[in-house]
Amino acid sequence: MIQKYIFGTYIETEAVVKEIAESVGQIPYLTKESDHVFTYQMGEDDIVYGLGESIRGMNKRGWVYEAYCNDDPNHIENIRSLYGAHNFFLVDGAETFGVFVDAPQKVQFDIGYTEREMMKITIAEGGYVIYIVEGDSPSEIVREFRSLIGRSYIPPKWAFGYGQSRWGYKNEADIRKVAEEYRKRDMPLDSIYLDIDYMERYKDFTVDKEKFPDLKGLAEDMKAQGIHLVPIIDAAVKVEEGYEVYEEGLEKGYFCKKENGDVFTAGVWPGKSHFPDFLNEEARQWFGKRYKVLLDQGIEGFWNDMNEPAIFYSEDHMREVFEKLEEYKSKNLDVDTFFAMKDLVLQTANRAEDYRSFYHNYKGENICHDRVHNLYGYYMTRAAQEAFEHLEPEKRILMYSRASYIGMHRYGGIWTGDNQSWWSHILLNIHQLPGLNMCGFLYTGADLGGFGSDVTEDLLMRWLELGIFTPLMRNHSAMGTREQEIYRFGNEEVFCNILGLRYALLPYIYSEFMKAVLKEEMMFRPLAFIYPKDVQARNVEDQLMVGESIMIAPVYTQNAKGRYVYLPEEMKLYRMRSEADMDVEVLSAGHHYVKAELNETLIFIRPDHIVPLAKAGQCVEKIDVSKLWLLSFIKDGAQYELYDDDGYSKDYNVEAHLTKITVEKDGRVGIDGAMKSECVVV
Ligand code: MIG
Q1: How do 571-576 and 601-605 pair as beta strands?
Q2: Does residue 331 carry a pLDDT above 90?
Q3: What is the spatial distance between Cα 84 and Cα 438, in angstroms, rounded to a whole number?
Q4: Please, what is the Cα angle at 469 between 463 and 473, to 5 degrees?
Q5: Which end of the chain is less packed: N or C, by CB atoms within 10 Å?
Q6: Ligand 1 atom nearest 195 alpha carbon
Q7: How far apart are CA 373 and CA 9, in angstroms?
Q8: What is the 3-state secondary structure (H, E, C) of 166-219?
Q9: If DSSP codes are grouped into helix, strand and coil, which group holds residue 301?
Q10: Is the CB of 305 under 6 A from ligand 1?
């Protein structure tokens, strides 16, 4: 059951797709302390799940989070916001209920930070809507919420293949080299990413003719090898005479303006830039249509970046900085003045004052950016996806974004931004997955191997061993860091095997993803969602249920040769060294130390569950499903419904795409449905 409470004059976000009548009277569960503050007294054992892309644990208690899309590459424990604003959480305990604060302005969730057992929600100035979601269990509440916000985005099937990316590939030769290195080792690969260097002076929808003289030809050659090129698109548009996007945007008034009517100017990658007003429907259509330039060159996927929006400096503030510096010049730089000067120069990016200084034309009203900040990346991605629906009505186009708000999950996925090559960020990746799924973000993944800092071979292996389960599986790293393509390291065979396992698992990953989307479920669940009465399972923060059959327990510590794992019930462990090399044991419920060498991925199968493994291929299209090897743990017999489709078109009829695989108690195997694979139990 969902109840909707309206407070004041609010700005429509279009996060919600279901019509719900407004409830009157007092809001349940929460105590309204003032116009913008609500509290909830948490019970000692209550767990709070949700808030999507955020730092710290799966259980969000013990910190304060701010929903305010933020480009901060330091994903450390004392920050409060990341790139997404995902205002849904669920309390599981004495009372179990969900809360969605639908507000595009800043919202703060103090979950036991100020007072250990007090939750305090503070919404910045302006109206807002709160939805209270009830159900019999956390899973039921999530399902209810997801039906409220509408079906999650579905990418093409090739986007479940492995992708190689690096900010630093400069030209066509670099791209060809990556492809060649993978292919000559028979390593699977489905995509190579183009970061900002493919553009001419960082101008959106342009291609640098010197570095990429024939993008179309390159895209074709890559496709012949089963590889898709995926270019980046940045939010801001370069100010440059003669640049069509700039000139047309200016002429039509599609850029955000300041109070005095001047176009807002700020520095980002292209230098001085303007910000398209994605909230203005006409501007949105205009920007969306621009993706055609690249679609026409054979491109079938994009990633939208810098759309919090990230600002390096605003032109207005920069003027103040220089004036101030002029003053400092003649001063005696005592300690205080020196630090003030230093801060002045260092703190020009993403300033609250700048976000308050420009405006959107949203549904005919002039609205200050600050009040709708969290919608910017969402509406940029919406611009693209709505255009794709016209430009490529029959085809799925890959799209994921850095900034997001709930509602954007219908238009694209997200990646979790600029993490680091740190062991703790593998754990952060685990923590984020269930919260993201709760908020509708199913097509998601982290920069595997870590974006910033220098990677090591073992860290990359361990991270990939988690990444083989995430829908988006991309290795991405920053300029200036150690190169981290898997062929840069000595142990090629291990990497090949890890990727091979991903491709062998792909039918299961795709099937579980699609079922989660179509049935509005989570693909990654905390153990407590499946074993709600198990007190120990409720505290596990480093294991996950992946789809209906698997529990994973990734290794995320340096030099470990195994780890402690908690089993809420008896399970069968497949210790996988490759898709075909494994050992198997049944483990009883309880705590175990489980060995996992660097080349071993642990897959735990629940009783009476099945995981089909196909034969890996060099790309998703080449995966061979004519024979399926069934990982299974049979007590009384099991059935698995495998979803599959052509991966390109938009016919998602579940019934037509299901194949039922059964393993009986006596080991007999059956298969019934669209697929006619030979099945063997391993
Ligand atoms: O300010 O395009 O998160 O993935 O490689 C950095 C360069 C801009 C941030 C993205 C990252 C990308 C990088 N971008």
Answers
A1: antiparallel
A2: no
A3: 14
A4: 65
A5: N
A6: 2
A7: 17
A8: CCCCCCHHHHHHHHHHHHHCCCCCCEEEECHHHCCCCCCCCCCCCCCCCHHHHH
A9: strand
A10: yes
